[in-house]
Structure formats: C-alpha cells, structure tokens
Amino acid sequence: MATKVLIVEDEERIARFLELELEHEGYVVTKTGDGREGLEKALDGGFDIILLDVMLPGLSGLEVIRRLRKSSDVPVIMLTARDAVMDKVSGLDMGADDYVTKPFAIEELLARIRVTLRKKAQGEAGDGEKLLSCGKLTLSSAARTAAYDGHVLDLTKREFDMLETLLLNKNIVLTRDSFIEKVWGYDYMGETNVVDVYVRYLRSKLDDVYGVELIHTVRGVGYVLKD
Ligand code: CA
Hints:
alpha/beta, Arc Repressor Mutant, subunit A, 22% strand, 12 strands, binds calcium ion, Rossmann fold, 4-stranded antiparallel beta sheet
C-alpha cells in the first residue's frame, strides 16, 4: 500500500515542489497551507508521516504538534528555518520525530522520511525486536547488544548509542552535529570532536578487530556506515 504523506506548508512554491518530488517517489500526497486545517487532517488520521512547517497561518507548527501528540503518535518531521534553534528544540520536546532545516536538499528530506518510517516500523514490530544489520554486523535495540559475525561486541552505553545511530541511518552520511543531537542530546554544550573520539573507539572494537571497513569517513562532512 502506498505511503500517505501530509504536507502542512504555507509557502506554495515549497509545498508544490515537495508534492512533485514525493509523488515521483511513489508517495500519496495531501497538502494544506493552514495550521488549523493541517491539525484537523492529521487528527482525522490515515497518514503515515507528516511534514510540518513551523511558521504557519491559523496555528503554528509547534502548536499543531503539541495538540496532535495528545492523541496521535503519527511520525512528524518539522521543517524549520535556518538557525531557528528554539523551533528545533521545542519541536523535538513536543514530540516531533525529526526536523529538516530550510533550505534543504530534497535527498536529505527523502532520507529523513525513510529513516523515520523505518524507526516507526521497527517500533511497531515489537520495541526494536527486529535486528538492525549491516553485513555481518547486527544490533538489537531491545536487548542492547551488538555482534559481528556472531561475536558479541563489548560496548559502552555511548558506543552502543553511536553504533545504533549509524545503523538506523545506514548508507546516510551523518554530520557531527547530527550525532551530537541524536546521541548526546541537543542540549550538549561540549565540543563536537567527541564524535571523532567515539568513532575511533568503535573502529578499534569493530573495524580493526574484524579487518573490515564499516564506518567510513566523509571528509568535511561526517561519517556513514556502509557494507
Ligand atoms: Ca511558513
């Protein structure tokens, strides 16, 4: 069955562009430019994922997500303005699953949509009972264990969270900032090079031990887990 997307975005140019791109990917799209109408449609249900702008007429995106979360756990990706840190923080606090900063590359948004839908599906499959995997690497979110070719990896909590983040975003390049947000939390105030330190720890327990190259460095950008 086709995946149904609700776009709540008042900038017609962006909404139209998203609609075309998503339909091209096979999604069934409904769009509205008004926050109140967006909330009504979202509450009516039937959508697999919602793309929600923050600055909207009728009702702000933050208010939409706040009210929506009282009765629905449909995945929501917020579309926030560049540097609107407060919007991102508030959106996540109110239960948004992820956000994309405008202007965004469509490929990034499509990747975020896939990741969010995948996480949702895994959650429904029984609290992460399904194993995440990449080649011979497997990870169980429920049991909080990871193994390579059947050998259990001895990981600290932080290392495990890093590896889980890499696996959930397999084949998607993650920046240091996105690791910080996903693993350390958006209120983390330290240096982002802590990410490099943890990638080194993980490589020393994984890549180096098993003679494989799973965690790839993308120069000037971040890291990606690939077969
Ligand atoms: Ca807007």
